[in-house]
């Protein structure tokens, strides 16, 4: 069949993706093959594809496609996360547009709207992943709030509660006043904010005279960024070692505006150098203050409502928003003479990732999971290598987190999510149970009623209690469902011994972002040990952050994040995949620029044009093969590159693996091999060379497929190759396997390539036409058999004749390749002075290079500690430099 002049991704991508789906190439069922399993980090149902998703899922697809081609039973499980806070916010906003207020709805009515929203919008991101080429097993798509997965969440809660690892209590949490819910640390984004530092005067209770008879100010000054919380102050704290405030020990002060007394307490927690040295302690509105309050037995007064407005306990400005109150109180303090001064101040403030509201530390009744015991096996797994973090630089961070683990707040004050399985009676007593009926049974047991009671009495008790029984309003943290993901997607809770969980678990690789290493990865390892008795995966590939070329994290607010689907439409999915992978070493941030996608598109065009070139050759079965050396060289070069690629894959250096592939295809195959073997213009090629070239191209296509699936599948089915059956597709073709490598042959060809490059440089410098054949003389100082290789030099460097000489050729333009000397006699007179300048420059460089090598080899520490092969390499460099220096010095003598 004919092939178009240009590669058009739009014509191939939908065609081949639909074909792969129709033939079930992505689908996996347990069989006798080795499984290779990845579970997708489930994106939020509220999400659309962004550059981070693009990177993460491209990496997963490369890994899964390579495993599939290696004959493994590759299973990539997709799915989405219900994202409690984000989804509820979306639904509330949607209802608001319809004139409906959430508080006017029952829970059941709200959830009906939420499910309708999810069905309409929740699958957008998965459909977008298909555009990228993601070869997920879509038949296995899961959702964290589907019935079976929700049941798993409830079961795991009850399991941990029965072990005594889940408890309910009042604790300080991150409170989102816009979402009106507690949020995890991971959902708090720290931002540097320009603020004001208010210096407030607190009048001292009692006389104005110190113990030493000295007059002292009748107030102390406290600096704070939050004057709106002074009504909740429980104490002023000073450092006991701060002599400036010795006179305040045992004193009390009046809180400005509300005028109630609070004590001055002492604690070394206070930084003498910070602010005024006096700290206002507000236990209800600051975590550190809360801990001070517990230590000193201070009262806790919460003056904020759930929505961030002041409540009745504030006494003043009741009902005002906290930020409005801040400005008003500052003015009131100034008017009352309590404001000493105001300064500009920058500090870190936490914001809700979902609503962008400033977080409030808040004391709240919440549900918690004890983490200490579960953390230890998860820490051991990483420390003993059972679970590998890639790159391993994250191990110390992981270790620190796990050794200092805090109990996990798992309750959220929302309706969208798995509801806490706790049930309350009219007196506030509660039990944990999966259903209302089971809760009634638990209450019966809790009352310690006589087991000999009749069924009628038991039924009567339940009937009397049932109308008062209510389930906890809160839902569980989204992470409390996603930490079960590698188990629940295979129905490991529903059917603990089913064939899927036994075959696919533990999974192989997890690809995710470092910022959720603790919040998701560590917790999945904990869940794996707790519920399955073993780790959930072996390798964790931690991607970097996608940044723009200025190093800024991509975000909507900065407007520096391109639309991934737009990039795919412009450049093609393969080009975008290549562009991202080329610049994304594991764990290091990707400085993305659209030019990378352009580079990827150029690479696709290069492959396409090379294919068109080969497809256009005519074959003459009667011709002998003049290209045996070129074919032998590329076969060895391919094997060498494949060895390097496999080593990079083994160490999860996917960027480096792609770069090796890129250089093999662009440089070695297109720029060198095809030039070596291609027939003269309008001349045929011999059958042996043609057959070898097609075989090489087929291997290259297979090698490229994990990175560039669409282009390679399109070329795979071209009639240049043998006829393909409907299931004979590149996606399931056998990944290339390496063979032996002739190291000497590869080194010799590098010298030949240098010879060709130098001749071309001379043409450019002297402005000699490529069509003009040049005579070449060579003085051989090495063991290279040039008789084998000169036909390549003749062909691609356009050399008319080659003569081996024993002495330097006077009056010739000279150059070196390896240890050997080459001379070209030009018709024009050589510029002796220019040649001398060039040779002297080379000599200075080589002498400096030799000096640096000698310095290394004379360093005893280096020689003792370096690997033998590194030392041998340095000695080879030394010998090579010395040989080249000698040749240049002889050439300078010839020049006079």
What does this protein structure show overall?
This is Valine--tRNA ligase. ATP binds at residue 556. It is found in: Cytoplasm. Strands 7, 8, 9, 10, 11, 12 and 13 form a 7-stranded mixed sheet that branches. The protein has a 4-stranded antiparallel sheet with strand order 6-5-14-16. Strands 29-28-31-30 form a 4-stranded mixed sheet. Residues 209-215 have low confidence and may be disordered. The longest helix is centred in the last third of the chain and has 28 residues, at 868-895. Among the domains are: 181-361, Valyl/Leucyl/Isoleucyl-tRNA synthetase, editing domain (Isoleucyl-tRNA Synthetase, domain 2), CATH 3.90.740.10; 429-471, no CATH class; 584-741, Isoleucyl-tRNA Synthetase, Domain 1, CATH 1.10.730; 773-895, Orthogonal Bundle (Helix Hairpins), CATH 1.10.287. It is an alpha/beta fold. Strand 30 and strand 31 form a beta hairpin. It is built from 28 helices and 31 strands.
In short:
By secondary structure, this protein is an alpha/beta fold.
**Terminal CA distance:** 63 Å
Structural class given helices, strands, pairing?
alpha/beta
CATH homologous superfamily caption of the domain at 181-361? Valyl/Leucyl/Isoleucyl-tRNA synthetase, editing domain
Helix content bin:
40-55%
Give the beta-strand count.
31
